[in-house]
Amino acid sequence: MNFIYNAADLLGRIFLIILFVVAGFGKVGGYAGTAAYMESHGVSSSLLPLVILTEIGGSLLILIGWHTRIVAFLMAGFTLLTLLFFHMPIADHGEQIVVLAELATAGGFLVLTGRGAGGWSLDARRQNAKGHINTGEL
Predict the structure, then answer these.
(1) How many domains does one find in the chain?
(2) pLDDT class for 135, splitting at 50, 70, 90?
(3) What is the rounded CA–CA span in Å between residue 96 and residue 138?
(4) Is residue 125, in this structure, part of any structural domain at all?
(5) Is 42 helix (H, G, I), strand (E, B) or coil?
(6) Does residue 95 belong to any structural domain of this protein?
(7) pLDDT at 107
(8) Is the dihedral of CA 80, 10, 51, 33 positive or negative?
(9) Given its phi and psi angles, is residue 89 left (phi above 0), alpha (psi -120 to 50 degrees) or beta?
(10) Residue 136 domain-assigned?
(11) 96 three-state secondary structure
(12) How confident is the model at residue 132 (pLDDT cuts 50, 70, 90)?
């Protein structure tokens, strides 16, 4: 049964971060356009390197399960800020779907915050190396 739990945890982490990896590299490739888009929404484009680092770096940390609870909490906050700055107010049905998807993504990160990365992660290896049993508790 641990195999199934660990595989589900890893697959869940992968599915959760795919969007951010693709978006982060897309911002690198379309830097000027993304900077202009941010400015058009009243967000300083000087934050773009931090946004890219958050999307790509945070995703990689979630993938390998390193300090997952902290990173997932920060990624949930990042996702909610993105929602507020770029998708509010809701203009049409298509935008409503985007808002709900952002909320679902933030929810997934909050589940990781509470649960941890699972057995196939650097967090679990670190806990096992310390002689602790990985119960998923803080």
Answers:
(1) 1
(2) low
(3) 35
(4) yes
(5) coil
(6) yes
(7) 98
(8) negative
(9) beta
(10) no
(11) helix
(12) low
Question: Can you read off the two tokens belonging to residue 1?
Answer: 């049964």
Q: Are 34 and 27 in contact (CB under 8 A)?
A: yes
How far apart CA 28 and CA 121 sit, in angstroms, is: 28
What angle in degrees, to the nearest 10, is found between the helix axes of 2-29 and 31-40? 90
Residue 24 corresponds to which tokens in the numbers above?
């982060």
Integer Cα distance of 56 and 62 in angstroms? 10
CA 78, chain centre distance (Å): 8
CA pair distance 63, 11, nearest whole angstrom:
9
Encoded tokens for 64: 């390998």
Distances 91 to 87, 94, 102 between C-alpha atoms, Å: 8, 8, 15
Token duo for residue 102? 């952002």
Residue 44 and residue 111: Cα distance in Å, rounded? 31
3-class SS at 13? helix
Amino acid letter for position 34: T
Q: Give me the domain span that covers residue 117.
A: 2-129
How far does the chain reach from its first CA to its final CA, in angstroms?
23
Amino acid 138: pLDDT = 45
**Residue 80 C-beta-side C-alpha neighbours within 13 Å:** 11
